[in-house]
Design brief:
164 residues; 2-oxo-4-hydroxy-4-carboxy-5-ureidoimidazoline decarboxylase; mainly alpha; UraD-like
Length: 164
């Protein structure tokens, strides 16, 4: 699909195209209502603006579609396909990295009561582990805001992939 096709879709179909990017109704409404877009960049800027900031409830809803970092998404949904592509750059994890991610995920979930979410695309396993360690020192409020920013980055990357 490209931008022209997206702009021409009926509302219902356009909503289903963007939902796997970020399953937040307010965001889906804004991105589809903003059509037609003149450029991909204007669509992406609209997506960034519409999402920022996400509420705690929206973050909770959106997180239900994200697997743990380092784990394969289950199922054959569009969200699972996006996640698999995004984490593909991690490659095959060696045993020590895999164990560190598993332990880090568990510690994070114990501390914050949600999965650790980070934009994996373009990051190495070591970068992700460094970020995981850093974020463990965040306050609850700071970490919630950081998760929201990560969700927005992921949503914009996914939308760009659809429209490019």
């Amino acid at each position: 699909m490209d931008l022209i096709e997206f702009d021409r879709l009926p509302e219902r179909e356009a909503r289903e195209v963007v939902r796997p990017c970020l399953d937040v109704e307010r965001w889906i409404d804004a991105v589809t209502a903003g059509r037609p877009y003149g450029t991909v960049e204007s669509a992406l800027e609209s997506a960034r603006t519409a999402a920022s900031p996400l509420t705690p409830e929206e973050i909770g809803q959106a997180l239900t579609h994200h697997p743990r970092i380092g784990e394969k998404a289950s199922g054959d949904s569009a969200e699972a396909a996006h996640s698999s592509r995004e984490q593909a750059g991690l490659g095959t994890l060696d045993g020590s990295v895999e164990e560190r991610l598993r332990a880090g995920n568990a510690a994070y979930e114990e501390r914050f009561d949600r999965v650790f979410l980070i934009r994996a695309a373009g990051r190495s396993p070591e970068e992700i582990l460094t970020e995981l360690d850093r974020r463990m020192t965040n306050s609850d409020d700071d970490e919630l805001a950081e998760v929201g920013r990560q969700l927005i980055e992921i949503a914009v990357l996914r939308l760009e992939g659809i429209l490019a």
